[in-house]
Design goal:
- It is a single chain.
- The chain has 15 helices and nine strands.
- The chain starts with a helix and ends with a helix.
- Strand 7 and strand 8 form a beta hairpin.
- By secondary structure, it is an alpha+beta fold.
- It folds into two domains: 212 residues, Endonuclease III, domain 1, CATH 1.10.340.30; 119 residues, Nucleoside Triphosphate Pyrophosphohydrolase (Alpha-Beta Complex), CATH 3.90.79.10.
- One of its GO terms (biological process) is mismatch repair.
- Belongs to the Nth/MutY family.
- Adenine glycosylase active on G-A mispairs. MutY also corrects error-prone DNA synthesis past GO lesions which are due to the oxidatively damaged form of guanine: 7,8-dihydro-8-oxoguanine (8-oxo-dGTP).
């Protein structure tokens, strides 16, 4: 059985009807690939449609403000993707007059574009023979060939890239790459794969050796850290609040949040009273305060868990930087913050 032709035949019969598969425009393909990094199709599709609707060309994206881009990205997570997307759009417009580089080597030079993304764009948009290796491909190859090398090790990355490059259909690399990724997403799924209806089942090493559930192999993840956040939700007599832009580098860079105090543990009301919050609020006169959520809201990120409490602070008058509470939803903010804004009755 020919591996690549089996996948291509399967793909022709089972592929999903997705908008970025109906074009060879590198802008649309690049946009879809950036959105789908660390994101499932069903979650990313509405964002793709929103971006192509608001920014139909790379020129539209390049001339947008970062705030507009981050606001549209809100809820998708991994916000560095959005910042890199915007930076790259401006670079392509300013340096290349809006024309995308058309080779893997040149695409790799763009900010936010790594081996996988460069391979995907160059093969799908420009039909270059460049093998993609994403999570789906790792899973298909490790199971079919019974490879136990950890996929997130230096040796594993090189081994799987070499294997993928040897297997790719050189005549139709665009179709083959999409086929193997789609096969991993729909057929050779992480859990409960459809082995009984798999066209590759007779020659799949993992199925024969009953090692489907143990492949692919990953080295142990980095330890997840725990942080304790206390957001100060200030409300003054003119119905204004403080909403600050995070300018330092980090997961929420350039997103907006309420003034934050990070502590070493979750605080009780009595412990909160001991904090020097007047200094954080520029010595604003505090009339009253209350705890919004007695139980910490746990926000889980890939490398850290945030245990969060929102403290409602009633003040007389805030500084001139304060904004109207009605304007809060206009600013891009992390899901943790936007969910609070949506649920809290100001």
């Amino acid at each position: 059985m020919d591996f690549k032709y089996t996948l291509i035949n399967w793909y022709s019969a089972h592929k999903r009807d997705l908008p970025w598969r109906k074009t060879k425009n590198p802008y649309n393909i690049w946009l879809s690939e950036i959105i789908l990094q660390q994101t499932q199709v069903k979650q990313g599709l509405p964002y793709y449609e929103a971006f192509t609707s608001n920014f139909p060309t790379i020129f539209d994206l390049a001339t947008a403000s970062e705030t507009e881009v981050l606001k549209l990205w809100q809820g998708l997570g991994y916000y560095s993707r959005a910042r890199n997307l915007h930076t790259t759009a401006k670079h392509i417009v300013n340096e290349f007059n809006g024309v995308f580089p058309n080779t893997y080597k040149d695409l790799l030079k763009l900010k936010g574009v790594g081996d996988y993304t460069a391979s995907a764009i160059s093969s799908i948009a420009f039909n270059e023979v460049a093998a993609v290796v994403d999570g789906n491909v790792y899973r298909v190859l490790s199971r079919y060939f019974g490879i136990k090398t950890p996929i997130n090790s230096t040796v594993g990355i090189k081994e799987f890239k070499k294997l993928a490059s040897n297997l790719i259909d050189t005549k139709q690399p665009d179709i083959y790459n999409q086929a193997i990724m789609e096969f991993g997403a729909l057929q050779c799924k992480p859990k409960n794969p459809n082995c009984h209806s798999c066209p590759l089942c007779k020659s799949c090493v993992a199925l024969q050796k009953k090692s489907i559930d143990s492949l692919p192999v990953k080295v142990k993840k980095t330890k997840v850290s725990t942080k304790y956040f206390n957001f100060l939700v200030c409300i003054d007599s003119s119905n204004k609040t403080l909403f600050q832009k995070r300018t330092h580098k980090g997961i929420w860079q350039n997103l907006y949040q309420f003034p934050l105090i990070e502590t070493e543990k979750s605080l009780s009301l009595e412990e909160f009273q001991l904090l020097d919050i007047k200094n954080v609020l520029s010595n604003t006169y505090i009339k009253d305060y209350a705890l919004y959520n007695e139980t910490d809201i746990v926000h889980k990120l890939s490398h850290q868990h945030l245990y969060t409490k929102f403290w409602i602070i009633e003040v007389d008058r805030l500084s001139k930087e304060a904004i109207s509470i009605d304007a809060l939803t206009k600013y891009p903010s992390p899901v943790l913050i936007s969910t609070f804004i949506e649920n809290f009755k100001f």
